[in-house]
Amino acid sequence: MKLLIIEDEQELLRSMMEYIRGDGYICDSSSRFTDALNKINLNEYDCFVVDITLPGGSGLDLIRHLKKVQQNAGVIIISAKNSLDDKLKGLDLGADDYLTKPFHLAELNSRIKSVLRRRFYSGSSSITLNELRIDTEKHQVFVHNNEVILTKKEFDILLYLVTNKERVITKEGILEHIWGDDSNTFDNLDFVYTHIKNLRKKLIAQQCPDYIRSIYGTGYKFTIQ
Amino acid sequence: MTTMKLLRSITRTYIITTVIALILFTGVIFFLVTVILKSNIDEQLVNNKERMMRNYTGDPVMIFPFVEIKQIPVLPPRGSDILKDTSIYNPVEKEYENFREYVSFVESGNTSYMVIIRSSLIEQEDLFTAFIAVFGISSLLLLTALFFITKRTTRTLLAPFYRTLSQLQTFSLRNLHAVPFERTPIEEFNELNSIVTELTARAGREYTALKEFSENASHELQTPLAIIRSKLDLLIQKENLDEEQKQSIESIYQNINKLTQLNKALLLLSRIESDGFAETQTIDIAAELRRELETFSTIAEFKNITISYSILDQSPIIAHPVLINIVIKNLLSNAVKHNNERGIVNVRLANGIFSVENTGPQPADTTEKLFERFHKESPSADSTGLGLSIVKEICLLYHFILSYSYNDGFHRIVVTMDSGT
Prior knowledge:
heterodimer; A: 225 residues; alpha/beta; Rossmann fold; Arc Repressor Mutant, subunit A; 2 domains; 5-stranded parallel beta sheet; 4-stranded antiparallel beta sheet; 24% strand; B: 421 residues; alpha+beta; Helix Hairpins; Heat Shock Protein 90; 3 domains; 5-stranded antiparallel beta sheet; 12 strands; 19% strand; rod-shaped
């Protein structure tokens, strides 16, 4: 998979690249409008991450262009503005998702994967890790082919952890992922703890090894190593 | 200091000065007229005496009470003549009457006489009565006329002033529009209006600049926050962190989160204030509330809080869906967040009135201070102190009435959405 990240803030760009490359993706970057335009015209990508406010032009114009040149690619908008207008305009232009700064890198990663899954693995929508199989389309989880009945929140958390496997995920990140914009209404981290406790219990009950590790003071890590 | 209307104050001053002036004026006139009259009467009395004595034959005369001539043995020294007021009993009218009396001593031949001539002052009394009547009636007429004229002229005269006043009353920095003033024939009012226009325009410019500044500041904060967060996300991936470092990172995380929320809330506030949610649609608030309660029941259950509710279907309201959602969410989360362990939340929606009650410790301030920005009852770490002021701002925008009370251990926030329209 090949990605292009278009973001003018160097430090943020570097962080995003480091995190996403960790999953073995090829990742190009661009921090200027014209440079991005050239890269879009010259190379083929599977997914674009586009910041709306760029020096030299609007990210929305880039999306309009790249949707003509590379119709199949996924597009995720990242913006400092939580503007419904921009969001609707971006989605109208064919963007798949919209993420408001500041975001957790794990969140960006999970959004990218979700877009790639939808666009490129439409035939098989399941993720398999040893005995664990997650059907992302039907929202079902199987261990040794036995279905594990999870609540919607538990499923979301599991998928979030799995898409960011081998990474430490913070409780705040999980909270924000499952509650979205409302996370500040529910800023109760114990809530996350309870959900994860139940999730683990249900998985272990089906003889699934406990892949979810608590990392003291920070959060959780889904690890199969 | 007691205050009164300008019009009343002006009218009152006018009337008081007029009454005083009228009284003084009448007094002076009356005094002058009596002095003149008296001197006329006196002159007449003296003349009459001279005339009488010229043809006097020597018999005693007694035409009481007008003329008396008596013989006296000795003539008093010269200059003993006197003019004075006196009153004499009138047996017909059965009352005392006032007279002017001239007593003089005359020598005719070898005989001395005392001559007393009197003139009735009854005319003067009539005059006095007439005077009072004329004074009374004319001053009454004058005062009434004065009262109405002042009232009328000042009302038309002050009309531009009152118009300016009412325009200033509705003035708000939030919905700035140039305050239009018509030209008036009064220079002072034109001056006042032009100053008011300039003042409001300047206040508006400064308010807008301030608003833009805070909005820009919040926007500018988003990027560094995003960078810090991303660096932390990478930092926690490091395998060789010790416990102490992890704890520090966790603390940084929490505070970055808080800062992020704070910034989001500030951005939201400035967006509401700058009409960023102008577009509206019809919203079924009952359905919206039911949906939110479903979400909240999970977290309430987790905190052992009982939510009970009664929701009646409402006529749809016209507003921005995001803002209505925020009002509901912030009030519910406030009720859950600042509750006791095993507390109670009562939610009610009926006839355009949405109320949320929750148990909780008695606040130090039972006033509406609660809705002020950054007002915090408890140093709760998971609260920005902006949730309720956002609700207040939204209520202001849609002219909802927001009220707070604390009774019998219950905090109660009421939003009256349908204010009789």
